[in-house]
Specification:
Helix content is 49%, strand content 11%. The chain is built from 4 helices and 2 strands.
């Protein structure tokens, strides 16, 4: 339902790669693609980017640092 039924994994990888590191733009592009392919339900996307260098510098686990975009 929603995004995963309408957007193939390979399309997701392409969009994420194309819009890296701007998660907001990538999330909106995924929603737009799903809608263009007939999305008739609420489509939600949450993207999280973990920054290894920041985690290492501050002694954080990967689950404690990152960037989140919700659409």
């Amino acid at each position: 339902d929603g995004l995963t039924d309408l957007v193939e994994d390979s399309d997701m990888v392409e969009i994420l790669t194309q819009h890296q590191p701007n998660l907001g733009v990538a999330a909106q592009a995924l929603v737009d693609m799903a809608n263009a392919r007939g999305g008739n339900d609420n489509i939600s996307v949450i993207l999280v980017a973990f920054h290894e260098a920041y985690s290492d510098q501050h002694g954080l686990s990967s689950s404690e640092s990152g960037e989140i975009a919700k659409y």
